[in-house]
Amino acid sequence: MSSKKKIGLIDVDGHNFPNIPLMKISAYHKARGDDVSWYQPLFSGHMDRVYMSKVFSFTPDYEYYIDTDEVIKGGSGYCISLKDGKEEFDKTKDIPLPPEIEHIYPDYGLYGITDTAYGFLTRGCPRGCDFCHVAAKEGKCSVKVADLSEFWHGQKNIMLCDPNILACRDWKELLQQLIDSKARININQGLDIRLMTEEKAEMIGKLRVESVHFAWDKYQDKETILPKFRQFKEITGWGARKTSVYVLTNFDTTFEQDLERIYTLRDLGYDPYVMIYDKEHTKGNDPVRLLQRYVNNRRIFRTISRFEDYDPKKG
Questions:
Q1: pLDDT of residue 285
Q2: Who's near 139: CB < 8 A, 6+ residues apart?
Q3: Taking the model in full, what pTM does it have?
Q4: Which of 85, 277, 284, 307 is the most exposed place for a label (fewest CB within 10 A)?
């Protein structure tokens, strides 16, 4: 009797961004000789096991019947829920991949990917911000979890998903791996400007990047981070289009503080980008929504110097 199994995969969020755990699960089972495919209710037939992965808590769960002996669910979307406008982490629902799957080279062919590598070099973040679940899920210490070679084999592009690589004690070694790759790097979770030093800025300046982004979430960090922003610009010489900063709004700041951060960043030569925390209760005519439209439309933001002069009816 054959031991070959039929394995089904469900990307609950959809296929707009490749699901890294599913690519690793696929690689693991294919290496064992199993038959791996996307699960389709009308065509897949009976499966021995189906893996479901969900990254976002707001994504509705898979609602169709699954013909299988076993279903395994995992991902942040299952262990993190939204309650009273805040995310809550349930450790009992957090199912980590076993080491033999976590450290396998991903099956990029699952999504038809040929020129980009996706992965994490570090996990965890020491910040523990109330609006972020990383510290609760991955720990309040940034630690190295892989070398670049674990998920990159010469692709032209690298999508790095680390939450806070600059907080890791191995940051220098890991940045050097990225520099040596000569690949185009996208650090999609951003860099912590509060941890910036001259040496780090010089190494980041050697990366092949279209842009990097930081965040100014807490207004009270003003005195700490403004010198860091100035230093980074002086060292790299990068213009506004290459340096953007996420500005968190309607979390614990006033509208006046939001405006101050936006104007200050523009004066420093950075491109601010407004992020709304409580999207559910922020309607289209809310001042924060209008601010987001004004700032995030680069043509408008560069043409109209003050938000007070912005007329949304005129676009």
A1: 80
A2: 123, 124
A3: 0.91
A4: 284
